[in-house]
Fold this sequence. Notes:
- This protein is an alpha/beta fold.
- It has 2 domains: 9-64, Vcp-like ATPase, Chain A, domain 2 (Roll); 68-252, Vaccinia Virus protein VP39 (Rossmann fold, 3-Layer(aba) Sandwich).
- It has 6 helices and 13 strands.
- It has helices spanning 66-72, 82-91, 109-118, 131-143, 180-186, 200-212; strands at residues 9-15, 18-23, 29-32, 35-38, 50-52, 58-62, 99-103, 123-128, 150-154, 166-171, 187-197, 216-222, 247-252.
- The chain has a 7-stranded mixed sheet, with helices on both faces. The protein has a 4-stranded antiparallel sheet with strand order 2-1-6-5, with helices on one face. A two-stranded antiparallel ribbon has the order 3-4.
Amino acid sequence: MDEVREHDYVLLYLDERRKYLIKLERNKKLHTHKGYIVLDEIIGKKFGERIKSNIGEEFVICKPTIRDFILKFARKTQIIYPKDASYIAFIGGISNGSKVVEIGTGSGALTCSLASLVKPNGHVYSYEIREEFYEIAKKNIEMLNLFEYVTLKLKNALEGIDEKDVDCVIMDIPNPWDLISIAKEALKGSGILISFSPTINQVEKTLRSLIENKFIDIHVVELIEREFQVDPSRLRPKTTIIGHTGYITWARKSI
C-alpha cells in the first residue's frame, strides 16, 4: 500500500459535498467546520486510512485523481469538464506516445488530462495568447508535476503551428474555423481534429471550414451527464444534472 509522505497532495473525504485537496506540510493544520486536522498526523499513514479531527469527526485519506485536481484548479476561464475531456481523449485516440497540439490552454485542465495520458513517451504542445491564462495554467501543470510532458507556448496559433505530423489537434477557442487549414498542416494523414465550442453558431462555421478543407468522418456531439442518488432504497436521478457545457466537433484529415 502507498504510504503518505510529506509534500504529497491528499484528498480528505468527509462526505460527497465536503472534500479537501491539500498539500501536506509539517506544523500546519486543516481547519474545517468539523474541527481541525493536524497535517503531521497524516504523514506516514496509508491511503484509504481514516483520521479524526480534534472533535472526533472521521475523514478518509484519499489519493487524488486528475479529476480531483481539475475540479479544484485555480482558473479564470471555464474549464472543459471531465465528461467532455474523457470523450475528447477517447475519440482522439490519445494514449502513451501520442503527439498532441492544444490550441487554447486556458487554465490547463484539459492540458493536464492529456499529459497524464500521453506520458511517458508522448507530448502535449499547448498554445495560449493571454499571458494571465498562461501563468495560471503553468502553476496548475506544475502542481501535478506534468511539465516533463507539456510544452506551453505564449503564442497565437494563427501565426502558425510549429509542430508537424501530430496525431491530434484540439481547439478550445472562440474562432476555430479560422485555424482549420493551419491545424490541417500540422496533422499527420488521417489525424484527428477536435473542436470544443459552447454555441451552435460556432459549430456551423467550423463545419463549413472542415468541409472546405476536405476533412472526412465529421461528427458533432453534445454530452449530458446525469448522476443518480446513491441510495439503494430510493435509486433515482438527482434533481440537478450537468447539462450543456459545449459541442464537440471532430473529423479526420484526408490528404
